[in-house]
Amino acid sequence: MTAGTISRRLLARLRELMAQSAVPLSELAAVIAAEMVSEVCSIYALRPGEVLQLVATHGLRPEAVGRTRLRIGEGLVGLSAATGEILNLPDAQNHPAFAYRPETGEEPFAALLAVPVRRAGRMLGVVVVQNRAARLYAEDEAETLETVAMLLAEPLAAMTAGEPGGEDLATTLPRHFVATPLVAGLAIGTVVVHGLRPAPMRLLADDPAREQARLAQAVARMRRGIDQLIAASGDLPAAATTRDVLEAYRLVAEDAGWLRRVAERIAAGLTAEAAVERAASEVRERMRRINDPYLRERVADIEDLAERLLAALDAGAPEGVPPAPVPPGAILLARRLGPAHLLDWHGRGIAGVVVEEASAAGHAAIIARALALPMLGGVRDALAAAEPGDLAILDGDEGQLILRPAEDLRHAYLRAAHDRAARALAWAGLAGAPSRSRDGTPLRLMINAGLTQELAALDRVGAEGIGLFRTEIAMLARGRLLDVAEQAALYARVLDAAAGRPVLFRTLDLGGDKLLPDADAEAAENPAMGWRSLRVGLDRPALLRRQLRALLLAASGRPLSVMFPMVATVAEFTAAKALLLAERERVRPAPARLSIGSMIEVPALLWQIDGLLAAADFVSIGSNDLMQFLFAADRGAPALAGRYDILSSPVLTLLEALARRAAAALVPLSLCGEAAGEPLVALVLAALGITTLSMNAAAVLPVKAALAAVDLVAFRAVLETLRRQAGDVASLRGPLDAWAREHDVPI
Ligand code: PEP
Ligand code: MG
Fold first, then answer.
1. Ligand 2 centre and the CA of 667: distance in Å?
2. For the whole model, what pTM was predicted?
3. Residue 677 to residues 289, 445, 603, Cα–Cα distance (Å)
4. In the CATH scheme, what is the code of domain 434-711?
């Protein structure tokens, strides 16, 4: 067998056997065992009741066929089916999941390779080979068995189809999934599933040359499609970033590596369709083991391309015919999703998207945010549990996906959606109004941004500027550092869009979990507290200086504000400031005014506050990080979400003191963590004297509406009483919430 390819002889034999009207599974098992030089080959089929039944074997006792049954998750076979992963074990019987079945007579076999059999995302069974000698199977052996598993999907699907009781009860009951909210919002509609093509009917080809020609045509067609998509992206609200993301995607499309793998599989005897599926699933398996979010996003790109290639191979889909629209409110479910497909689906009218494996910094999430499309990620098994056409509720605020909701829940969510639409309409009228509380206290509401497509929100919500521009986001979207000219062009676009309103550019906050693909960072045990952010900038001053130069160039004589993240000591701040001042001497025209500020994110700064306020032109509280370090609670850990509250006595005491000190030193203070976008928190912050708040753009109008409804003087007294009464209680949120509701404050 040649490395990486399945043998033509095996494919030819399998083709003969599969052509028979009733596929002889035991003969198939014998052929596979012989070809793979393994003593055992067994085939397990998924039966009603989530049970895997041994349906054929070569090498185990024949009387076990039909008798040996394992539940999903039970034993190694059940484990492979439950996780959907390949198991390659030199010493299977000592694996903790091994389940002994005496009737099989498998005691002598040490090594085991198990591959799940799936079709269109559905688990159908597991194929296993075993050997006496303890050994790890080679990569090409695993690939061969994966190809075999793909071929076995057809007979196993036929076997379960039409069986009494085969209808899975689990797909008719309501199901509730807790997910990672990636883009806020609510969608209620029917499920559509991404990548739900019928599995290719023809897997084995008679004429490889013809298949290679079909592949070449399809690749050309796919490339034309991507070019069209890039050309059309100019009309989208997110034009610039969308184009950047698509350009990166085109590079993946041009990468000859995976197309060569497809061609190799065709040469071995697979049809072009089967070869594309195999190549994509190999990449998927390999990348699955890589724990880097950006590399994992490349998997989504490859899968997206594979889908495109399969569509291009499908003769029934002539070029240029737009895909059918989806039902109104449709919710797209996908295992992974690349940027191009998300744009396609958006064009077809989806109202929300759920991606099983998606990260907040992934391409799909970046695009979804730009399109204001509610999105959930990190939902395991949603696809397996859903049927196209099922009703679903996507709650992007609370991170919930509910499949087949009960009637009363559906009505409750419909009411919420209705209220939300009514509120949005009312808020839209607020955009032009000044932001002040009912008693007339002026407030500055600004937006947090990181991508050019978010700039349009400045005018849409009537924000007073950008209180936090996260410069690393554009680089994460493109997967690389930008050079000085590219950065300068980007920052100039931001300043142009702000049209004189202040923009607080935050220097690169990379490291920790925000890694570029080529970052040479070693895996750190506590990345959030590791070598990240300004620490990197000070240790690699060339990198920071390039960014500072780009900012000065972008300002080109206009006022410029720069702030440094993750400052832990005043000395760090002054060192960073010195770099900026040195760069200022080199750039002409110099900015009309240069304001240099510090984020307050590291608790140690709180005990250096006088020194900091003396050195900084402004400070901004990064409550996301400050909270995580104050309470030693990972901000990304779902298990800790909501456990510690910004509306608790210690934090309020701290924020109040900060506001007082900054006011006394005449240093502008703002807060730019996520909490600023919660109307109730914004009220409290304003009452404590923090009146400049920077938040995600969608929160500006709701916060404005809440503040406009409150007399801050009266509210301050209420807050003081509640704080006095509260003592050490973990959070004041309950009583504050009750007060706001009683006083008709829209929170
Ligand atoms: C923060 O930590 O509150 C903050 C605004 O910065 P980021 O969320 O980018 O870490
Ligand atoms: Mg931070």
1. 20
2. 0.60
3. 37, 10, 22
4. 3.20.20.60
